[in-house]
Every structure is written in C-alpha cells, then in structure tokens.
Amino acid sequence: MTAPTAPPFSYREVGATARPGPLPGGYHHLRHRVLIGHGRDVLEAAGAAVTTWRMHRGAGVRADSPAGRAEAGARVDCTVGAGPLRITAPCRVVWATHGPDRIGFAYGTLPGHPECGEESFVVELDRTLAVWFTVTAFSRPARWYTRLAGPAVPVLQRMYARRYGRAVRRAAGAARGLGAPGAVSGGRSGRPRGRDRG
User: Fold this and answer.
1) N or C of the chain: less Cβ packing under 10 Å?
2) CA dist 19 → 51, 93, 172 (Å)
C-alpha cells in the first residue's frame, strides 16, 4: 500500500520568509512587529504560545492540527467565522525554529486556501533582553471571494496580525510593567509605516 502524499503548496516561493532580503514580488507584503516584554522567561512563554497554536486560539482563530506544536511538515487548518461565513484555510508548516533566542515558524498555503503565500510568526530576544514578536507574510488572492474583496483583505490581515500580537503578549504575561508598548507595521513595501498600539 502506498502512503498518501501531502498536497503541494499553492505557491512557488516556499520558504521565502526564512531567507534574508526582500519578500517575493507580485504579492501583498505584511510586516508587523510588537514588543512583548523582557527576559528569557517571556521569550519562552511567548514562544510556547506561538508554536502550540495558543496564539491562534487567543486571536479567535481555530487551529486544527494533528501536531502538538509547529514542526516542519505539520498540517494545520485555520478556521474563522461561523455558519455560512465560516472560512477554513489549509496550511502546512514550512519551517520551524526553537533556538535559545528565536522561536517560531512559518506556514504556507495549500490548495483550497482563500489566499496563496506564506506567513511566519517569530519571537526573538534581543541584546537588551527585549522580546519582540514579528509577523511576516506575502500573499495574494486565490479564490473568487478574496479577489472580489480586494483591498479589504490586507486590512483584515493587519487586524489579525495585531490580534496575534495581543494574544502572545497575554499568553506570556508580558503586559505587566510595559505600559502600552508600540508596534511597527508595514504595508505592501514592508517598510515601517508608523506606530501602532498592537
């Protein structure tokens, strides 16, 4: 009996979020960066929230995966909405990192996803012991309704990136002593566009 093969990704530039340099052309680009807290304990708690799908649940996204945490090759189906407005987005983890100062992963879209492209979620500890959460993505419409939605889709993507940041901050317990940390968000060019409360 032949083992079933995993479906191919629905885009060609697989792994581009792991490489330095500009994101692939022909896609909408999203970069969102927010301060989560300070210290290695915050990094580890935030990293656990990101890689065990708790970040998704905290942002109101249902993430169904047979894998307990994000590892390369793991499938995850993300669902938002309910009833006739329910949308399920099938993805597979492209890469994952569980290093001493950097924890996170990226998943890419599979056939049936309303978009095609890739999105990464990473928490990092810098030299000052600040912990940053960054969402990086490139995507374009893959279904008729996302093409019809046009500019509303990037707006929703930025909204969910901010929700993910808030969910990670809550999960890490990093809000204490931070006041109101800012975020840096980028649009199509990926360049910072100003402060955002995340």
Assistant:
1) N
2) 20, 15, 27
> Alpha-carbon torsion 39, 23, 54, 81, what sign?
positive
Q: What is the pLDDT of residues 152-190, one digit of tens each?
A: 888 889 999 999 999 999 998 843 444 444 444 444 433
Instruction: Tokens for 193, please give them.
Output: 């566009």
Average pLDDT, the chain: 86
Instruction: Centre a 10 Å sphere on the Cβ of residue 129 and count the other Cβ atoms it contains.
Output: 12
Enumerate the H helices of the chain as residue ranges: 40-51, 54-58, 144-149, 152-172
**Residue 170 DSSP code:** H
The amino acid at 11: Y
Q: Residues 94, 14: contact at Cβ < 8 Å?
A: yes
Residues 79, 77, 185: CA angle, nearest 5 degrees: 70
Picking from 57, 54, 60, 78, the residue whose alpha carbon sits closest to that of residue 159 is 60
* CB 134, CB 122: distance < 8 Å: yes
Q: Give the separation between CA 126 and CA 170, rounded to whole angstroms.
A: 20
Give CA separation, 107 vs 37, 42, 75, 174, 177, in Å.
25, 23, 9, 25, 33
